Amino acid sequence: MTSGRHLDDSFLEAVDASLAPADEALARRYPGDDGRRQPIHTVYVPADRYTPELPQQWGAAAVDAAQQAGGLDQVAALVGLGSSPDSAPEKLAELVAAKLAAEPIEDLRLDFEDGYGNRGDEVEDADVATVTAAVNEAAEAGLLPPFIGTRFKCFEAPVRRRGLRTLDGFIGGLMAAGSLPEGLTLTLPKVTSVDQVEAMVTVARALEQAHGLPERRIGFEVQVETPQSILGADGTAPVAQFIHAGDGRVTSLHYGTYDYSASLGIAAAYQSMEHPAADHAKNVMQLAVAGTGVHLSDGSTNILPIGDADNVAAAWKLHARLVRRHLERGIYQGWDLHPAQLVTRFLATYAFYRDGFTPAATRLRNYMHRIDSAILDEPATARALAGFINRGAVCGALPAADVEAATDLPMDTVRQVALGRITTPLG
Predict the structure, then answer these.
(1) Torsion angle in degrees (nearest 10) through CA of 363, 366, 369, 371
(2) Do 392 and 398 meet the contact criterion of CB atoms below 8 Å apart?
(3) Of the residues 31, 162, 304, 349, which has the maximum number of CB atoms within 10 A of its CB?
(4) Percent above pLDDT 90 for the chain
(5) Rounded Cα distance, 123 and 68, in Å
(6) Quick one: which of 400, 394, 410 has its CA closest to 37?
């Protein structure tokens, strides 16, 4: 009597051998989430305006803007937040007030590109020296945000050398303090070809060697602002190639709302984070980063909450809606350009996580503890549930004690499930 098996071990070994190169390529190109923190926003300021006190000044200005509108709870109600008991305006106000006091900016970019302009070599060199000294001072005083860095001029021929001169001075200035900030983030803007990414790898490697830094200590994010990055002349999507040409150094893709829209000929009045052309670009970017461990960020809105009360209210409503929109689409970061935008950045983000917290925690608890329920979840969904909760905890929307009580799991276990390191129920 035979077992009915016809594929013997030698045959299976041959299949394994034939697929070994593909297995290696998949593991190398799509390593998955490495667990590093992703900020919920990036704040851009002209580099010459930076001082060590800037983050706290922005936080205080955000609180003042909210107080002029009646307080954070009133702003939350004004923009339509608070759809669940977990995200009541009063609770959001309490959590956001603490955030604005402790960590008003998660990621700060000191801009030597569009926000700075062309001021001549003498002025820009002096500003690079001044700003790096200020960053080192802030580091010494414990005043740096979790992430900080610079956006230098792009690799287009007319400004390429100026941008590299600034980058060289920026890294050298920071190294004068003996090391680079832990959260150093560099932004390569207006990328149009894989060749530019490869050139940036060469530059990063040269700077590491010059300063005796470990290999791949210098990473960079790519700003997607040109149609050539989304659709190449050969019909491919260069943005996907950027990541794999980046030698493991590409940390994030950032969408550039206005340069990209203008490049497509979209009239200024209709340039927006929610234009169909913007959604198309970000959909391609989202596919490009999937499984790579590279982060993805939406862009900004230039409609600022300043001026009379009606204009402030309208701008806050728009910003809150746009923040919620990209969160619902699985893009967990965006740009902010003004202190008053911090109000709705944190209110809308915290409401997103708190609105979904109870159902997500219940489903994760049921899955991990094998509790019967009307929803039959599987490992991939459990990971998504844990990832949602972990992101909310990291940014401050979900206190760890609340997470542990609702899931009946230690916070570290939730993180391990989010990273795919625990894939099966407990017990």
Answers:
(1) -170
(2) yes
(3) 349
(4) 94
(5) 38
(6) 394
pTM over 0.90: yes
Q: Quick one: pLDDT at residue 2?
A: 55
Distance in angstroms (rounded) separating the CA atoms of residues 96 and 343: 8
Which residue ranges form the domains of the chain, and what is each CATH number? 41-349 (3.20.20.60), 357-418 (no CATH)
Residue 5: CA count within 13 A, CB half-sphere: 7
Which residue is listed with tokens 């959590």?
Answer: 95
From CA 262, how far away is CA 278, in angstroms rounded?
Answer: 11
| Element holding 421 (H helix, E strand) | none
Q: Which residues pair with 93 in a beta bridge?
A: none
Residue with tokens 């590299």: 164
Q: Which residues contact 78 (CB under 8 A, 6 or more apart)?
A: 69, 313, 316, 317
Alpha-carbon distances, residue 263 vs 87, 230, 260, 273 (angstroms): 39, 12, 5, 14
Closest by CA position to 367, among listed 312, 324, 413: 413
H helices present in 80-159, as ranges: 89-102, 121-141
DSSP string, 263-291: HTT--GGG--TTSHHHHHHHHHHHHHHTT
Q: What is the DSSP letter of 186?
A: E
Low-confidence ranges of the chain (pLDDT < 50): 1
Q: What share of the chain is helix, strand, coil (3-state, %, to 5)?
A: 55, 10, 35
Which tokens belong to 47? 């580099």
